Amino acid sequence: MEKTFIIGEIGINHNGDIDIAKQLIDWAVLAGADAVKFQKRTVEKVYSKEELDRYRESPWGTTNREQKMGLEFGKEEYDEIDRYCKEKGIEWFASAWDIDSQDFIASYDLKYNKIASAMLNNKELLDKVAKEGKYTFVSTGMSTMEEIDEAVEVFKKYDCPFELVHCNSTYPMKNEDANLEMLNTLKDRYGCKVGYSGHETGRIVSFAAAVMGASSIERHITLDRSMYGSDQAASLEVADFHKLCKDIKVLPEIFGDGVKKLTDAENEVKKKLRG
């Protein structure tokens, strides 16, 4: 069984606070995650003026604009994230929600790109990401098979290595909506690696996906699920994330190689019971 690539999705759970982001990075490192992921938006381009002007109470004010700007990191914060992740020895990357944000993320020397489920039908963004040629995680939440077909064709066109990521884009997701058989459906249809991005509240679905052979597991992580934020309730607190990582990492040892053989310990039992 191949090693599962584990991603701690910090996203916007940092609530605009670089110290919280660094704490989450620390916890991801301690858990043994392979990477942490963020989200990057050019707020004025992703959302309409009407949407941004809508009333919304938040720690930053009373409009959507103030809330979204309060959650957004800029160059100073990402420079620190880049420096800090290098210091801690963990990879980081981000899902961009617009062209300017992808240009911004591309200014860092990162190994991976990510297409968020909400962006799967953004042909311009897909073209731009695929042209970079970096290994790309492509989330498939909210998408039809036809939309996934079109996205896959873009990455094949530019010969860009990619991995599809099965997910259900409800926050939090009910366990019965996980439909993990889609891991096999996507793998059979596209002949590529398929990971799982979970938005459920517990660990069992993500662990089951790893048992089924998901090539990557991505989970939102948080210091406290009761914190302000739309993604917090669908996140794992860091202690649970640590437990999930620990359980996933033991799977290759548990699965073994499928060759029937007696261990030394079992041979000793055999001598006693069979004579």
Number of strands: 11
CATH structural architecture: Alpha-Beta Barrel
Written as H for each helix and E for each strand, in order along the chain, the element string is: EHEHHEEHHEHEHEHEHEHEEHHH
- Uncertain runs are none
CATH class identity: Alpha Beta
Radius of gyration: 20 Å
Total domain count: 1
Describe the structure.
- This protein has 275 residues and is of the alpha/beta class.
- It has a single domain (5-274), classed as TIM Barrel, CATH 3.20.20.70.
- It is 44% helix and 20% strand.
- The chain is built from 13 helices and 11 strands.
- The protein has helices at 18-31, 43-46, 49-53, 64-71, 75-88, 99-106, 123-132, 145-157, 182-190, 204-211, 238-249, 251-255, 264-274; strands at 5-11, 35-40, 55-58, 61-63, 91-96, 112-115, 135-139, 162-166, 194-198, 216-222, 236-237.
- Strands 1, 2, 5, 6, 7, 8, 9, 10 and 11 form a 9-stranded parallel β-sheet that branches. It has a two-stranded antiparallel sheet with strand order 3-4.
- Helix 7 links the parallel strand 6 (112-115) and strand 7 (135-139).
- Helix 1 runs parallel beside helix 5 (75-88), helix 1 (18-31) packs parallel to helix 11 (238-249) and helix 7 runs parallel beside helix 8 (145-157).
- The longest helix is centred in the N-terminal third of the chain and has 14 residues, at 18-31.
- The relative contact order is 0.14.
- The mean pLDDT is 97.
Short synopsis of the structure:
With 275 residues, the chain is an alpha/beta fold.
